[in-house]
Amino acid sequence: MALTGTKRFQNYIGGEWVDAIGGDTFESVSPANGDTIGIFPKSGPGDVDRAVEAARAAFEEWRLVPAPKRGEVLFRFGQLLIEHKDDLVDLMTREMGKVKAEAGGDVQEAIDMSYYMAGEGRRLFGQTTPSELRDKFNMSVRMPIGVVGAITPWNFPIAIPSWKMLPALVCGNTVVFKPATDTPLLGERFVELLDEAGLPKGVVNIVHGGGGAVGDRLVRHPDVRVITLTGSRETGVEVMRNAADALKHVHLELGGKNAIIVLDDADLELAADGILWSAFGTSGQRCTAASRVIVQEGAYEALQSRLVAAAEKMRLGYGWEDDTDVGPVINKAALEKIHSYTEIGKGEGARLLTGGEVATGNGLSDGYYYRPTIFGDVAPGMRIAQEEIFGPTTALIRVRDFDEAIRVSNGIKYGLSSSIFTRDVNKAFRAMRDLQAGITYINAGTIGAEVHLPFGGTKDTGNGHREAGQAALDVFTEWKSIYVDYSGRLQRAQIDTEESPAP
Q1: What is the pLDDT of residue 401?
Q2: Which of 72, 121, 135, 431 could form a disulfide with 67 if both were Cys (CB 3.0 to 4.6 A apart)?
Q3: What's the number of domains the chain is made of?
Q4: Domain span at residue 24?
C-alpha cells in the first residue's frame, strides 16, 4: 500500500469519525525510514468522556444481543482480516517495522482469535450443579460487565487488540480503545474493519493520544468498569493504584525476562534456531523474547560459536523487503535504551561477543536499527540478566547442571515464558513442574503462543489474569449464581432441620 503521508485521521466515537476536542494532532512516523504515515488527533480527557458515554449507552442494547449473534459479527471480522491481510501486513512493516513474515503472523493471530471467540458466542459455558434441597435447580452463568478500556502496545498492533477486544465483545461488553501512539493507523484499521463487520454504533470507540491524557482518564473514569493493559511493570502498578478507588476489574500483561535452558544433551542446531528466533524476532521487542540463554557447561562453547556466527549473518533492513531478517526498533528512545544496556553489560564485565552498536549506512541511517547483540560470560545477577531490555540483545549464562539452570531461570522478578532444550524426558517433565512461568516450551523457543490456551505470566509479569483461551472470558464477565426453587414452599439452605435424609 502507498504511504498515507499527511492524511489526517480521526477518533471514532458513537459511530462517527470526529476530531479531538482541542484540535491538537501528532504524527505517526515509520521507524524504518522516517516517512510520515499519517496525522492523528491528540486527544484529551474530554474526548475520553465522549467515548465512554457512547460506549455506556451502547452497552444497554449490545448486552441483550444474543451471544451467538455477537459471535457472528466476530466471524465476519475474521473474514475481513483475511481479505485485507496483505494490506495490513504491508502497513505493519512500515508503521511498526516488523518483517513480512512476522507481520503476517501478527495479523493471523487476530484471525485465529476472531474465529475462536466467535465460537464462544455459542458456548460461554457456566455450570449446573445438584442442589442440596429437593425440587431445586442450581446454575451459574456469565454476565457482561459494562464498558472496557483497552490500552494496547505497539509491538503487536493487530494481535493484542484482538486478544483484548474480541473476548470483551463476544461477552456483551462495549469498548473504548486507546492504541499506542507509535502505531495509531493500525489501530484505526482494526476499528474500521470491526465497523464494516457490523458492530452497532458505540460498541467500539477509538480515542488516539498519549497515556497521560487518554490512558489515565480511561483508568480513572467512573463508568469504565474494566481496564485491560499490556505495558511495562511500572505502568501496570500505576494503573492498579489509580483504578483502586473505584474497585475496577484490572487485567495486566507486563514485563518478561525469559530464559531458554540448553542442556548438554540438547540438539544444538535446533536450540540455536530457537534462540535466534526468540532473541531477535521482532528485533527482540516481545514480552516473550529470550533475553537470557542458560547453557550447561558441556554445550556452552559449541552453542556460543553457532549463535555468534548465525547472528552476524542476519540482514538488517526494511521490513517490507523479502530478504530482511531484522527490522528496526520502534523509535529513537528505544534505540538509546537498548544501547545503554550494551554499555551497562560491558561495564558489568560481561563479554560482548557480537553486535552492540547502532546500525547505519546502506539506507539504515534514517531509521532505528540495532545490530543483533550477544553477551557471553554473563553472571545471573548482572543487570543485563535481570532487567528487561526490549531489544535484540541476549545474554549467555553458563551453569553446571540442570538444578542450577532451573534456579537461574527462576531467579528474576518476572515469570512469563520459559524454555528448555533436552532429550531427557525426565528433565523435561521436571522443568514443566519447576519453571516459574505462565508458559513453558520443551525443545522450542520462548515465543509462539496459540490463541486457544491461556497467555500470561506469574510474579511481576501480571496480576494473575490471562489472555486468550477460556481464561480470557473470566476477565470480561462476572459470575452469577442462580437458584430456582420449584417446591412451592420455603426451603432454607444451610439451616439444620430435623428432616431425615431421603432413603
Answers
A1: 98
A2: 121
A3: 2
A4: 11-254+462-481
